[in-house]
Please model this.
Amino acid sequence: MREIERDSGCMTPGGGEEWPENALFGKYELGKLLGCGAFAKVYHGRNIRTGQSVAIKAISKKKIIKVGLMSQIKREISIMRLLRNPHIVKLFEVLATKTKIYFVMEFVKGGELFAMVAKGRFCEDLSRRYFQQLISAVRYCHSRGVFHRDLKPENLLIDDNGDLKVSDFGLSAVKNQIRNDGLLHTLCGTPAYVAPEVLGKKGYDGAKVDIWSCGVILYVLNAGYLPFNDPNLLVMYRKIYKGEFRCPKWTSPDLTRFLSRLLDTNPETRITVDEILHDPWFKKGYKQVKFQDEYFGLKSDKDDRNVTFLNAFDIILLSSGCNLSGLFNDSDDSVNGERFVSAESPKRIIEKIEEAAKRGKITVREKEELGVELEGQNGNFVVRVQIYRLTQNLVLVEVKKRGEDVVGSYDEIWRKKLWPELRLSK
Model:
C-alpha cells in the first residue's frame, strides 16, 4: 500500500500539516504485507512518534458492505476494545477513511501457532503450557460475556517471549445476541474445529462451543494432526457429531482422559472452564492470570462501573467536524438532537433529568444506568438521553429525538424544561 487516502472530511495532524510519505493519518508508517484475506490486508506498521511496532489490519468498506458484514466489523471493534488480557491481542485504536477501516493492533512477532505445530507435534509439557494460556484467555472472554466461536491454531499467535495470544474476534458473539431460549443460533466457525451441537442447528451455548474448539486445539498440539478429518466434509461432520476420534499411542492416560472430557459430544456433560482449572493434568505448573478491570487505562468509579468509555474512534464518529457516521451505513434520519460535555457524574445527570421531568410532568418511559428515555405528551414523541465517559472527569451527554416533533415537542420538553436544569453542568 503505497498511499493512503487523504479524505477531506478528516483532520490532518497539527491542523493541516502535510502527511509523512507512506504514513497512515500521520501516525503510523506502513511496512511489509503480513497477510491478506477476502476483505482485509494486514501490514506491519510503526508508530512514528514512539517507534513501537504494530499490526495494521486494513479492511475494505466497499467489500464488507457488499456482503453485509458491517455489523460484524462493528461488533469486532466493540469486543476488542473491551478485552484487556495478557493472552489476547490488544486493539490500540481504530482509524477510518471513506473507503477503509484500519485496526491498529499489537504486533505479535512470533507468528501463528499453526506454523509451529505444522513443523511437528509438541511435547506434552509444551502443549499444556499453551493450552493453559489459551484457557486463561477464554475464561477471561467468557467472564466478559464474549464467545470467540472460531478458535483454531491460525488465530493463536506467539510473541517474543513464547507466550500465546488469541486474535481475530471477527466471528465472536456477545451475550446480547443470545435468543430467548438462552442459546446462540448463528452457524459459524471452521469445519474441523466446530462443535457437534453447532452442526445440529438447534442452538448452542457459546462457552461450551469454545471449550470444544480448545479440545481440538489441544489434540492437534499433542498429536500433530486433527482428531476429526476427512476429505469429504459430510464424513468429517459425521465423525464430529459422533465424537469418533482416537488419541495417539504417546498420549498419557491423564491427557487421554482430559481430552475425552473436552471433546464430549454432549454439551451438558462437557467439561466447563471452572472444572478445567481443577483438572490434575491441567493444573500442573499452572499460574493463574489475574483479570484486569481497567478499560484503556481508566478505572471507573464505583457508581459508574458500567459506564461506556469512548476511544478516539468513537469521538470522531460523534464529532460534527469530522463525522464518519456514514461509515457504518446505519444512520436514521428520524434521529437527531445535540451533544454536550459535562463534568457531572452520569448518576447525577440522570437524577437531574428525572427531577426536572417530574416537575414538568414528563413521563420517564425507560431508565437505564447509562441513559433515560422520556415520552412527550402526545405519546408518540420521545427524547433519549445517553451518557458516555470521555475521561475520568468528563462525560459526553447525547440527546436524541425520535418520532415526529409535534407542535415543537422537542423544544417544549428539552429546551424549556430539561436543559435549564442541566446547563450549569455543561
About this structure: Residues 302-425 form a domain with the TATA-Binding Protein fold (CATH 3.30.310.80).
